Amino acid sequence: MKKAYSAILATTLICGSVFTATSAQASTVNTQSVQTEKETETNFLQLVGTVSKITKNENGTFLAEFSKGNETHSFTFDEKTIMLDNSGKEIELKEGMQFTAYVDSNKPMILIYPPQYAPEMVIVQTEETGTVKVDKFDKDFLNKKKDLIITVNDETIISNLSGKKLLASDLVNKEVVIFYDVVLESYPAQTSPSKIIVLESELSDLDQAIKIANEDYYVKNGVKMIPLRLVAQKLGFKVESTGKGAIISKGAVSFTVTRGSLDYGYNKSIRKFENAPALLEPNKTYVSEEFLPLLIDHY
Description:
Cu_amine_oxidase-like_N; mainly beta; 3 helices; Copper amine oxidase N-terminal domain-containing protein
C-alpha cells in the first residue's frame, strides 16, 4: 500500500497588525487601535476579540471564550502561554479584556468545529503606553515595507516563544513581534524596541506526537493508521513488545494491543479498534488514529 503524507494545519492568514494603546493617563482604551496591514505576510493566525468567559479545565488549563460573528470561539492557555500587555509586561488574562492571540499556522493541531485554538502568545490591550507590531527585518534592521528601522542595543530583550534568549542576528528575516513607544520622525521612521519576540518555538512532545500522526500514516480499509510506538513514546509511554503486539503503559494506565485483533485492553476493560492493528512496515505496528486521543488524555 502506498504511504501517504500530509499534515492537518491551521489556516495561514496573510496579515499583520499594529496593536497600540493610549497613554496611562487616558480614561478609556482606544478600541480603534488594532489595525490590519495586508501587505505583511505572516505564518501566524491572529485572533482578535474580547474575552467573554474564562473557565478552568479538569487538566489545569484554562479555556477563554470570545465571539466571532454569530459564533462562540475559544482558545486554551496555561502558565506556559506568553501573556503580555501592549507595553511588554506580563499580565493575567481576565474576562472583558481585549486581546490579540497569535497561533502558529504551521503547528500541527487536531481540527474541531467550532475551532478551539492554542495560541503561543496573547497580547492584551491596556491603557499603558506602548505599541505592538508584527514585522520582518533585514540585516540592516529595516522592515519589509521599508518604512521602519529598529535600533537594537544591549538593553533590548530578545527571545523566542520558548523563552530562549537570542542575539540581534537571530531576528534577521524572521517574523517578530516588537514592543516600542517612541518613534523618531524620519523616513524611514526609527524606534528602539524594549522587547522583541521571534515567532519561533520548539515543538513540545505533544505537538511532535501529533505531527508524527499527521505525517507518518497509512490508510487501510478507509481508516487512518498511525505508528504506535513512535507516537506513544513521544507522549511518555513505555512500549514493550509482546511478539504479537505491545503493552503500552504509564503509571497506573496500561493498554494491551495485539496485531490482527480488534480488541485491546485498557487497564481491566476491553475496548475495540475501528481497524485491527497491523504490521505495515518491518518492526512497526500501526493502529487506528482513534487511539491517539486516548493516549493524549493520559499525556
